[in-house]
Design brief:
By secondary structure, this protein is α/β, with parallel strands linked by helices. It has two domains: 130 residues, Four Helix Bundle (Hemerythrin (Met), subunit A) (Up-down Bundle); 210 residues, Translation initiation factor eif-2b, domain 2 (Rossmann fold, 3-Layer(aba) Sandwich). Helices cover 41% and strands 16% of the residues. The strands form four sheets. It has a seven-stranded mixed sheet with strand order 6-5-4-7-10-14-15, with helices on both faces. α2 packs antiparallel against α3 and α2 runs parallel beside α4.
């Protein structure tokens, strides 16, 4: 499971996704055979997590190309552009989505003179390559994170994580949970505190499920319990994922991450962000420029399909918040760990 084969699979010319909305009670799958079904799966959170979204978007574009049956190059290129536009609108905050689509479109541009059949084959091969690369990248993130946390004086660590940045959020192994997995393999994990992560409960439903599957000891806590356990000295480090990182190190992650960073600073607890270099958005200087997705209020208004808040009361449901770079101890990537000042160290890692 750590290698993530449950998350997504290219099978008989279609993308097969585990339906993360139904976990952990039901392990069912959604079969996507065109770009529209992939975009819908991303938007409706059948699949989620920035790296996984990026890989799925690549497969979505490959499907749009594969399904084209005509002979006109201009018509084919128009299909690709429309599919890329559709997929880019599925989740606005996760920069990996745009990174993956850009990479696929560059491949098309580089082979613009090639026959349609060759471009179709190249796009499918590139999506498969991106999937394999993601697993390798996440394993390296895990290794680098374990080395970074070697500075913690305790032999076995109690870690806190938020949302799900594991195999389910990637093509395999995970980012923040990749660090946990690497530490666990070294027998250095005493306990993982798992924030339930309201309102979508990715921590309680998904992270806890992954840790249970691999026998990694964990406690699920509600989001508002984190300060309590920090105050008791129960948390040695916080490790979270990211959906977009600005040039100065400001990081967008699942709503509630900002609060954790403030609490960690108060109790002088190391706070690490684990993410691939593709999550770094060099076009944004500050986190305030990161677009924040506003999701369906029903995710807050309803619990288990039952309304608990009167319709007359308005609900806000931002999916992400932005943690300032000053509250981040280090950013763990596949190229190494960036430490402040991030403007310099991130650029150095990207150039390595």
């Amino acid at each position: 499971m750590a290698d993530g084969n449950l998350t997504l699979k290219w099978e008989e010319g279609c993308l097969v996704l585990i339906d993360q909305r139904k976990l952990p009670l039901t392990e069912s799958y959604v079969r996507c055979c065109d770009e529209k079904s992939v975009a819908r799966a991303i938007r409706d959170m059948v699949v989620r997590g920035a790296p996984a979204i990026g890989v799925c978007a690549a497969y979505g574009l490959a499907l749009a190309a594969k399904n084209y049956q005509g002979r006109s190059k201009d018509e084919f290129l128009s299909v690709i552009r429309k599919a890329a536009s559709l997929l880019s609108q599925a989740r606005p905050t996760a920069v990996n989505l745009f990174w993956a689509l850009d990479r696929m479109e560059v491949l098309v541009d580089q082979n613009i003179q090639a026959p349609v059949a060759k471009i179709q084959a190249l796009l499918e091969a590139e999506a498969k390559k991106m999937e394999a690369e993601d697993v390798h990248i996440n394993r390296q993130i895990g290794k680098n994170g374990a080395e970074a946390l070697a500075a913690c004086p305790k032999e076995k660590l109690q870690l806190l994580t938020h949302c799900n940045a594991g195999a389910l959020a990637t093509a395999g192994y995970g980012t923040a949970l990749g660090v946990v997995r690497s530490l666990h393999a070294q027998h250095r994990v005493k306990k993982v505190f798992v924030d339930e992560t309201r309102p979508y409960l990715q921590g309680a439903r998904l992270t806890a499920w992954e840790l249970y599957k691999e026998g990694i000891p964990a406690w699920v806590i509600t989001d508002n319990m984190a300060a309590h356990f920090m105050s008791l000295g129960k948390i040695d480090a916080v490790v979270v994922g990211a959906d977009r990182i600005a040039k100065n190190g400001d990081t967008a992650n699942k709503i509630g991450t900002l609060g954790l960073s403030v609490l960690a600073r108060n109790w002088e607890i190391p706070f690490f962000v684990a993410a691939p270099l593709s999550t770094l958005d060099g076009a944004l200087c500050h986190g305030k420029d990161i677009p924040i997705e506003q999701r369906d209020p029903r995710e807050v208004r309803e619990v288990m399909g039952k309304t608990i808040i009167p319709d007359s009361i308005q609900v806000k449901n931002p999916s992400f918040d932005v943690t300032g770079h000053a509250d981040i101890t280090g950013i763990i990537t596949e190229a190494g760990v960036a430490y402040p000042p991030y403007e310099k160290t991130i650029d150095k890692l990207k150039g390595s």
